[in-house]
TrEMBL record:
Every DSBA-like thioredoxin domain range: 12-206
Molecular functions (GO terms): isomerase activity; oxidoreductase activity
InterPro entries noted in UniProt: DSBA-like_thioredoxin_dom, Thioredoxin-like_sf
Protein name: Predicted dithiol-disulfide isomerase, DsbA family
Length: 214
């Protein structure tokens, strides 16, 4: 897991899944906070597979997804200015998490992170397939040969499993979930935010945590 930045005053640890629309819907607000706070805020994203093997994936044409998107996802996407559409596939995300872990090592985490969300939720691409991940990596500026080698060898698999083990230890069963605390403070001081919370709620939590760090 990445270590805290020495200059950060506040750290937000985010567990998410690239097949979770609500995780993507929280991204714009987090990006705005990061731009405003700069090095005073560190946001660390962690892997959480909603449907790892052997748990079955959802039917992309089923009633559950269509209803959830109609009632929740589409209205929230319009409100937050994102052009999401229900993807035609429901892939597993373990390989995507390994791809973004490799991109982090190459200094391309943000670009790959957004490419995965955008590729799945805006373009309907199957992010469970190696060749699709290589294409997205190229778009994000990640060198193809190194990414292919890492994915074929499972170089970053243990990092993904470690993230998920930590989530299990914390009792996390759904995403997105954000744990916000003064940098370097124990986990027990974290403020937990669950789901795609409104930006005002995110900012209020940040202000509260900032007072803890003084």
């Amino acid at each position: 897991m990445p270590t805290p930045s020495s200059s950060a005053a506040i750290r937000i640890d985010v567990w998410s899944d690239y097949v979770c629309p609500f995780c993507y819907l929280e991204l714009p607000a987090l990006n705005r906070l990061q731009r405003e706070e700069g090095s005073a805020l560190e946001i660390v994203w962690h892997a959480f597979e909603l449907r790892p093997e052997p748990k079955p994936t959802l039917d992309p044409h089923g009633e559950y997804l269509r209803t959830t998107w109609a009632r929740s996802v589409y209205p929230m996407a319009e409100e937050r200015g994102l052009a999401l559409k229900l993807p035609p596939v429901q892939p597993r995300s373990r390989l995507a998490f390994q791809a973004v872990a490799h991109a982090r090592e190459q200094g391309r985490f943000d670009a790959m992170h957004e490419a995965l969300f955008r590729g799945f939720f805006e373009q309907g691409r199957d992010i469970g397939r190696l060749e699709v991940l290589l294409e997205l990596g190229k778009e994000a500026g990640v060198e193809e040969a190194g990414l292919r080698d890492a994915l074929e060898k499972g170089t970053h698999l243990q990092q993904v499993l470690d993230d998920e083990r930590m989530a299990h230890d914390f009792g996390i069963t759904g995403v997105p979930i954000m744990l916000m605390r003064p940098a370097g403070a124990p986990w027990e001081q974290s403020v937990a935010l669950r789901g795609a919370v409104p930006e005002a709620q995110l900012r209020a939590a940040l202000a509260h945590v900032r007072t803890q760090g003084r």
